[in-house]
Amino acid sequence: MHSKDQICHDDYQKTADWLLSQTQHRPKVAIICGSGLGMLADALKLQDSFHYADIPGFPQSTVQGHAGRLVFGELKGKTCVCMQGRFHMYEGHSLSKVTFPVRVFKLLGVETLIVTNAAGALADGYCNGDIMIIRDHINLPGLAGLNPLNGPNDDKFGPRFPPMSGVYDQDLRRLAKDICKSLDFSQFLQEGVYCMVGGPNFESIAEARFLHKLGADAVGMSTAPEVLVASHCGMKVFGLSLITNKVVKDYEDTEKVNHEGVLGVSKMRSETLQTLVTELVSRLDINNNTA
Ligand SMILES: O=P(O)(O)O[C@@H]1C[C@H](O)[C@@H](CO)O1
Ligand SMILES: Nc1nc2[nH]cnc2c(=O)[nH]1
Fold this sequence. Notes:
Helix content is about 30%, strand content about 25%. By secondary structure, the protein is of the alpha/beta class. β7 (about 190-195), α7 (about 205-215) and β8 form a beta-alpha-beta unit.
């Protein structure tokens, strides 16, 4: 059964064809920028950029800290496409809309997806400003049946029942750790499990304790659906969480998290994150081509 939100292959293809007609760039890498981390896109050379509102079929971004632009260009000589602002379920988008750009990227020829997000720390040893390489995720909405792959499977993209083990590429994680060592970033580097919740509220203390007990090191409101869809269609995936706050797990703690604080910490570390992602992209084993 097709729901009203069902998007068909032709819809993705139309958007991809439109983009291919507007730019000479042919990216092999896509980067999705999290809250406050969009400045990474500004570093692209030879830019062609498009406001989401001008791209046929694209959803609109409504969150502060997400500019709503798709930027094509070169990062250290490697052609990339960068989402300066992503879509979240809590904005009212269906998960097929949230992940729409990922399938468009696949049709553009993208082979590697890099995702970044802002997240709250559940792990005790984490500090604000830490960068966490995502080793694995817990897709809480997905476990409860909110899944972008719900509905008829599109075999042109991938299988009906995709595995989710080993989704965060081990070689890319290893490479990122080597880069962090050489850049002297190791003192604020972590590797852990990201848990996606629906949001838009931050966690209650009982919820935070529950997620921590489940094995989550950080919690946020994005990433898992995009990663799931990218992996389903055969892309390599690498993910980074910027730890913007500690999630309150103690009833004596009167600290309250807010989005402005999240954006503040993102800003403080965005240059570091940009350096890490740029270095990673420059060392990817890919060849450029243009139209
Ligand atoms: O897009 P991301 O996951 O970086 O955004 C996080 C989660 C919420 O959208 C917002 C909360 O401050 O930041
Ligand atoms: N759910 C959730 N998302 C976040 N994004 C940034 N910080 C947080 C947090 O503490 N919780």
